[in-house]
Amino acid sequence: MTEQIKTEHMGxxxxxxxxxxxxxxxxxxxxxxxxKKVKDHISRKQAAxxxxxxxxxxxxxxxxxxxxxxxxxxxxxxxxxxxxxxVDKTKEPxxxxxxxMTPKHHSTKKVTRRQKRLSEFILDTPxxxxxxxxxEGVEANIAAxxxxxxxxxxxxKPVELEHLEKLIAASDQRVEEGDA
Length: 180
Fold this sequence. Notes:
Elements: E1 6-9, E2 12-17, E3 22-25, E4 30-32, H1 35-52, E5 55-61, E6 64-77, E7 95-103, E8 111-117, E9 121-122, H2 126-155, H3 165-172
Antiparallel strand pairs: 1-2, 2-3, 3-4, 5-6, 5-9, 6-7, 7-8
C-alpha cells in the first residue's frame, strides 16, 4: 500500500489522488491537476467569505470619526494573572484582535490593513455619528482656545532690566559699617 500524499492550505486538507493524477479538497469537493491552482481556489474562496463577512463600523482618531471595516477575526486576548503572566483561562477574554481596513495616517482616502483591538471600534449608528460630530466641534473649540492662549501669552509684558534699576543700583553700592 502506498502512502497518500497530503498537504494543508488555510486549514483545508489537500490530498493527491494517485489513480486520478490530481489534487483534491474533500471539504468542498474541488480537484485539479495543479496543486497551485487548488491552493489559489481555496484562497479565493476564503477571500470571498471574508469579504462577505466584513463589518463596517467607525474609529475615532484625534477627535474625528473615520469609516473602517473589520475584515477578519484573529483571536481573543486573554487576561493574564498578576505577577506570573500566566493566562487565566477561567475568565472571559479581555479583548479580541481583528484585522481592519483603516485610514492611513494623515489621509482620508487611502486605507491600510492593520491588526487592532476590537474595543477600538465604534458602531456605525446615527447617534454615534452625531456624538462624533459634537466631539469634532469641541475639538475645534479646544484648538481655537489653545491658539488664543498662545496669542495672549505672547502679549504679556515681561520683566525687563530697566524695571530693576533700584536693585541694580543697590547691588553696586557697598554697605559701610555704620549703615547696617
